Amino acid sequence: MNIRGAKKILVRVRVNGEAREAEVEPRTLLVEFLREHLNLSGTHVGCDTSYCGACTVILNGRTVKSCTLFAPMADGGEITTVEGLAKDGKLHPIQEAFAECHGLQCGYCTPGILLSALQLLKKYPKPTDEQIRKGIAGNTCRCTGYQNIFKSIRMAAAEMEKR
Amino acid sequence: MYAAPFSYHRAASLQEAVKLLQGLGEEARVIAGGQSLIPLMKMRMARPAALIDINFIQGLSEIQTPKGELHFGALVRHADLEHSAAGVNVPLLHDCAAGIADVQVRNQGTIGGSLAEADPSGDWGTALLALDTTVVCFGPGGQRNVPLEEFIKDAYTTVLAHDEIVTGVHVKVPPKGSGGAHLAFKRSAPVYPTASASVQLTLEDRNVCKEARIVLGCVGLKAIRAKEAEAALRGKTLDEKNVRAAVEAARAAADPQNDMRGSADYKRVLVGTLVKRAIGIAARRARGEWVAAGHEYTGR
């Protein structure tokens, strides 16, 4: 069948508040769309098997694993990536807390964890340890042992409450 | 990883989706949340020539509560159900919805897609079999309602015709005096369970089992109704001896396979333990107690 090698699809999204678009093969994953077509390489590919969460972005207000969505499925969507966290050269309180508490070592998983933390804190501004555990269960970190990630999220929660 | 190439078609309505399925032939697949299908396509275990995206169809994401029933649109995401009143009223549904994989997967994966995919390790096929569940299917001939027992035929195989789509899932609200639980054990949050058990009980006089449903997951080519285990409880007191008999019958009904999640022997022991715990929690809930339950995994 000649529908293989399929025709390209125009995908239009708003990323970090900015309208962006590109024509891509339908099999293009959302993470590849962001990295290769929109040159936003902050979102990382870790396991590429829906496990590790390094590719986590926020799509229409909810975190998703961008390695497990085809780009056309996100058409018309509102996306936040790690590049959208800092505003006017100033780090987001979650980023500041991760820096302060050593919530990262190699940093590879961090973009995804920051976005999972953001969604968690929107839902539970004062999260319990169990809510934090459940909230970041879809994000794997092989360096920190998670203790400092917990500290960072608790600190970010306290800081965001003050503001 | 790249999936094999496919053509992409976005359906604006159910009618259009069915027409596309008819026109594109047997190599076309419907995609909803994609949380099972996309990994299979990336590993090239599935190679559909065409995908029909139903995510843009309006009106499939609602949870409705007509008298005595719960109606879930096919595009209700696991997270929608996790945070809904339906999960509060029927705790077994919350156990299942809140424990599937992780936040990101629950935000995207759908209840309709989980049933249509019929993965033997999927949670909904097990949990919903413990309740009276009907799958609403739509095709060229219109709508038909199929009981869940009949809907899933085998691993990855349903009664859906090639040009039919799941549009919703209807669940009967269990009667007063009922309680249920869906328990699963998994090695870490994002993975499928090693084994799972769903139990729904109706009690009389606090400790006599009037009605029982016991379903085993991940230990067969589809979810298994352990009918002998149910019979071991029906009409009986929920005492240690009768519960032990039900657990033994459930273990005997399991048909697990050796795989990377564990040996068949291990899974048979595990599923019995889950049944035992689920009976205990279901009974406490039937008596009106609030009990937290769901998926267990390391680091939880």
Your description of this structure?
The complex is a heterodimer of chains A (163) and B (300). Chain A has 163 residues and is of the alpha+beta class. Helices cover 33% and strands 15% of the residues of chain A. In chain A, α2 crosses α5 (147-162). By secondary structure, chain B is α+β, with helices and mostly antiparallel strands. In chain B, 34% of the residues lie in helices and 26% in strands. In chain B, β6 and β7 form a beta hairpin. In chain B, α10 (227-233) runs antiparallel to α11 and α11 packs across α12 (264-286). The chains are: A alpha+beta (163), B alpha+beta (300). At the A-B interface, β4, α3 and α4 of A face β1, α2, β3 and α6 of B.
Key words describing this protein structure:
heterodimer, A: about 160 residues, alpha+beta, 5-stranded mixed β-sheet, 5 helices, B: about 300 residues, 5-stranded antiparallel β-sheet, about 25% strand
Q: Would you spell out the secondary-structure blueprint of this structure?
A:
The complex is a heterodimer of chains A (163) and B (300).
Chain A: E1 9-15, E2 18-24, H1 30-37, E3 56-59, E4 62-65, E5 78-80, H2 93-100, H3 110-123, H4 129-135, H5 147-162
Parallel strand pairs in A: 1-5
Antiparallel strand pairs in A: 1-2, 3-4, 3-5
Chain B: E1 7-10, H1 14-24, E2 28-31, H2 37-42, E3 50-53, E4 63-64, E5 69-73, H3 78-82, H4 85-89, H5 91-99, H6 103-108, H7 111-117, H8 124-127, E6 133-139, E7 142-147, H9 148-151, E8 152-154, E9 157-158, E10 165-172, E11 178-185, E12 195-204, E13 208-217, E14 224-225, H10 227-233, H11 240-253, H12 264-286, E15 295-296
Helix pairs in contact in B: 10-11, 11-12
